[in-house]
């Protein structure tokens, strides 16, 4: 949960670097929260026929900027420009490319986007020690 909160604290940070752990914990917790909100809105009858509901839409809108920001920081960690995030506008191929970039390991040492976050003390996850 610490990694998820770290992303939210860096809401508008498009400059630094993000470790794989930070990015993927954010993605996982975000997916879990979205599913839980979907169940709640279905139970309350707030979903339409396509399954969209007010809770998941509002949650998604609130997390657009931090989601883009953490992806940009993840790209920076692999020494790529944040502008690569725009390739995600290309369906399937762009998403696959961003997925591959997010899986790559950090560039060792410092790069043009800052120090390697693996070398800096990072929060420990409450789930994994």
UniProtKB/TrEMBL annotation:
Pfam families: DUF805
InterPro entries (UniProt xref): DUF805
Keywords from the named record: Membrane, Transmembrane, Transmembrane helix
Keyword Nucleotide-binding: no
Record field: transmembrane: 23-41, 53-72, 84-104
Superkingdom of this protein's organism: Bacteria
GO cellular component entries: plasma membrane
Full protein name: DUF805 domain-containing protein
Native source organism of the sequence: Obesumbacterium proteus ATCC 12841
